[in-house]
Write a structure and sequence with these properties.
single chain; mainly beta; four-stranded antiparallel β-sheet; 7 strands; elongated
Length: 110
């Protein structure tokens, strides 16, 4: 189950390189107002962030994408937490979690 403290729901150790990272999770919520998820690299910080809002019982999918440059070996984490109304007793869980990284030659922007 997810709580108000950020929780690592998936992690992926990668060798140095340039990657396109994708994280996906099915979020099941009971009285949870908002769920926030991020992709981050332990040594470099935030890559992507998204949240879903709801009322009552519901299920939603969060998908995160980002390029990632790792100059040395590192770990990419998908982290989720409940952003809750203090008057409620929120419950949420993440399932069908997929975290993947496709190594690419280099990044080019326009």
């Amino acid at each position: 189950p997810l709580g108000s403290a950020p929780q690592v729901v998936a992690s992926l150790s990668l060798p140095a390189g340039v990657y396109l990272v994708t994280g996906r999770a099915q979020i099941d919520m009971v009285f949870a107002n908002e769920i926030d998820c991020t992709l981050n690299i332990q040594s470099a910080g935030l890559l992507d962030q998204d949240s879903v809002k709801t009322s009552g019982n519901s299920s939603s999918t969060i998908v995160l994408h980002s390029p990632a440059i790792l100059p040395t070996d590192g770990t990419v984490n998908m982290v989720c937490s409940i952003l809750a109304d203090p008057q409620s007793t929120p419950r949420a869980s993440a399932r069908n979690i997929v975290l993947s990284a496709l190594q690419i030659g280099n990044l080019m922007g326009q």
